[in-house]
Design brief:
This protein is mostly helical. The protein contains 6 helices and 2 strands.
Length: about 130
Amino acid sequence: MPMTDDQRAILAEAGTTPDQTKRRRALAIYLSCTGDDQNEARALLARGYSLALQPSFHLVPCGDKMASEIDFAEAYEHLVRATNSFETITRDTLVAAVSTRPSCLVPLRMIYFRGVRSRKTVPAWR
């Protein structure tokens, strides 16, 4: 029996809903599918879960706003270039990076505080 639009909607929302019952229902729908319907169900689940799993590390407060993903990526790339792909992390390379592009503080803050929490900071930052 082909999937209904209601079943498609349940599958599509499974990755982003906090409701465990809906997630279990989506799994049951998927397991009951065969052939092309199972492929479609798999694609719907994958799309929904990939939305929930997208990184949000760039959503860091930056003054009175949030850094956009593009701004974060550009600042991070500048930081990569300024530190020779993080091979040369010194006070001078970091000061130069932040002086030429202040938005580098956003990824630096993420890297540093993540390291502090996991106790794996770069030796030059200790």
